[in-house]
Amino acid sequence: MSDAADTPVLRARGVQKEYGKGDGLVRAVDGVDLDIAAGETVAIMGPSGCGKSTLLHLLGGLDRPSAGEVLLSGRRIDNISEKALARMRRTDIGFVFQSFHLMEELTAVENVELSALLAGRSPRAARRRAEELLEQVGLAGRARFLPSQLSGGQRQRVAVARALSNEPQVVLADEPTGNLDSAATLDVLQLFEGLHGSGQTLVIVTHDARIAATADRMISMRDGELVDETRLTGGTTGELRAFAGLED
Ligand SMILES: Nc1ncnc2c1ncn2[C@@H]1O[C@H](COP(=O)(O)OP(=O)(O)OP(=O)(O)O)[C@@H](O)[C@H]1O
Questions:
Q1: Which ipTM was obtained for this model?
Q2: What are the tens digits of pLDDT across the range 121-177?
Q3: Does the keyword RNA-binding apply (predicted)?
Q4: Quick check: pTM over 0.95?
Q5: Does any ligand 1 atom lie closer than 6 A to the CB of residue 51?
Q6: Residue 50 CA, closest ligand 1 atom number
Q7: Would you say the CB of residue 17 lies under 6 angstroms from ligand 1?
Q8: Does residue 94 come out as left (phi exceeding 0), alpha (psi in the -120 to 50 range) or beta?
Q9: What angle, rounded to 10 degrees, do the helices at 152-164 and 123-136 form?
């Protein structure tokens, strides 16, 4: 196998993040080593405040570590210029947040195409890609709706479509179902499962054991450190839907 195939999509080495100083010093992430392979789905779990979101932000270049290295496909991202970092976030990473972070004044299709436009695609190519993605997430019929005209689950599906618009190397999701009810959670879960099946690398911070159960690997965090990891064989959302009485 070539070196490129062996290189993890994401690698963290001795990563630390401190906030504040003196008595107010908080070490939110405390010496994390982590490799995430291409095509892997990894769930990060742990109690509130243990550093999950901070770690995800460091992995995605939304924030820089106080110490240690973060590498995307073998290239350091913790020490590159702001400009290079912004470009990398636009083209190589897809983010999905708990509160969706959609632009309220833009329609679903405009929200999705915006990131493709910002990454330099032509308006026609961006629109075509956005329409394809909305179809993929089951929202072709809602493309011209504003976020306020969509349900929470539909909004999160738009956000997932947006995250995929530039064919990112990795999608990072921070509590993607935290604001959704059970049925919408399972819809989004099924969407992630489809992405996993298509070989998309995914890192999901979640409190939801159902989401974690469908990952390849579940990592537990405590007090800024990775304390445990479990390889999973993976339940399917079909089974979960049946269990929850949501089968169509
Ligand atoms: N900008 C900041 N300034 C100061 N402290 C911060 C900042 N961001 C996070 N922290 C602290 O770092 C620690 C980890 O926070 P983080 O949000 O990463 O935890 P989390 O595990 O994602 O929590 P939750 O599950 O509640 O979202 C917490 O103690 C938090 O108060």
A1: 0.97
A2: 999 999 999 999 999 999 999 999 999 999 999 999 999 999 999 999 999 999 999
A3: no
A4: no
A5: yes
A6: 21
A7: no
A8: beta
A9: 130
